[in-house]
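Entry 14. Structure prediction run on the chain below.
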Amino acid sequence: MFDKTWRSLKNFFQSSDNSTTARVTAPTTASDARSIPSLSDEDCAFLFEQLLEGVSHGWQTLRVQRFFEQLGEQGSHVTWVHWLQRYYAPKVLASPTPDLELAQKLTLLAQQTQYLPKIMEVGAMSNAIAQELQRRATRNPILEYSGIDADESYDAPEVKYVTPDELLLGIQQDENLAQQIASQLGVSETDPEILLRLLLERFQVESPDSDGG
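Output returned:
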């Protein structure tokens, strides 16, 4: 169902892999395109976020359809597909950390719009962005973390494999974890991003794979 829109986005995703300024030609003609003078890009972003939150909390197909109908002319699928291509996709894909939670919401939107005439194009575009986020997420390196300078006599728990993004989130959410890592690193700094950077630097230095021999 999403093949046609996905093919139209193929060049966009390939060219935007290393650049956030890539542009694609909208899948509609100039005569079909409509502007939404009373809504800025930020206004559209706010509304779209409400839509994604809605589907993530159980909005069904008819509720999604009503969302666009209540926007009147500003709910035109042409407008929203063009906005997703021009503004939303480049902004979302510019992040070095793919947002998998967002990808899940976009996929849900695609599922709830796949049987809605015209609006399904908005869902197809959302699904394409979700697939690209998921594809990029697979590129994240995996970090094995079992503690630094651990005592060999200590009966350590089973090693947990986490990505740097997951570790950063854990540090941000758990102040005790941040303090423990800072203590192990021998620093007083507890800023999550700084701790993650120091931890990755320490890991690369101590990793056997980093040894030239």
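The first helix runs from residue 3 to 15.
Filed with the rest of this week's runs.
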